[in-house]
Write a structure and sequence with these properties.
Blueprint lengths: L7 E5 L9 E5 L11 E4 L4 E4 L4 E5 L5 E5 L2 H13 L6 E6 L9 H15 L6 E5 L7 H21 L7 E5 L20 E6 L1
Length: 197
């Protein structure tokens, strides 16, 4: 699934030994304000949540009551759960000089941002995918793209990130960022794409 929907489903237990518990579900928007859909099913009814901050509360008789919460209400009720969420994934693209695994001057500066992001996460999972331009034969480009990904992995491992937390792959010339004719040396295709989770 290309879009990731941010939905928070949380339970709120209402006290009392003889009182059955009730659940509260709140649908949160993602970073861009988009939401998915959540269906809350009770024994005697259901509610479809498909707008930001829509709520559904199960009732003691098995029903489901639909409502809406404000951002401040969500923060008040779910502050602990929201604070415990892991940071959102972040992506980086670093570019390379032609035919080797040397960063461009601009990417040498951007590596600092990657290091800062990795350092702020307790246990990051990192994916590094290498790419090449459309110059040269497939076997050479496959090897070079993997060499670029492995170079980034080596740098990250040197920062103390366990190697088993860094997945690398090389795509060669098969997934150009900028489509070109065969043999064209497009600098934006000589890259690694890094996803930090």
């Amino acid at each position: 699934m290309r879009r990731l929907y941010a939905a928070l489903i949380a339970s709120l237990v209402l006290g009392g030994c003889a009182t059955p518990s009730q659940d509260l579900v709140v649908l949160l928007p993602d970073k861009e304000g988009k939401v998915g859909t959540v269906v809350v099913q009770g024994q005697k009814g259901k509610a479809v949540l498909n707008t930001a901050y829509a709520t559904a509360r199960t009732t003691t008789d098995g029903g489901v009551q639909r409502g809406t919460a404000s951002q401040s209400e969500v923060k008040d009720v779910f502050s602990s759960a929201l604070a415990a969420q892991p940071p959102r994934p972040v992506s980086f693209i670093l570019y390379f000089e032609s035919g080797n695994d040397e960063f461009t001057e601009q990417s040498k500066q951007e590596v600092k941002g990657l290091f800062a992001e990795v350092a702020r996460r307790q246990a990051p999972d990192i994916t590094v995918i290498g790419h090449t331009d459309l110059v040269g034969p497939d076997p050479s480009n496959d090897a070079l793209s993997l060499q670029r990904a492995e170079r980034v992995k080596s740098i990250l491992a040197g920062m103390g990130i366990p190697a088993e937390r860094i997945l690398t792959a090389g795509r060669g010339r098969r997934e150009p960022l900028i489509p070109t004719a065969d043999g064209v040396s497009e600098p934006r295709n000589r890259r690694v794409e890094i996803n930090v989770r």
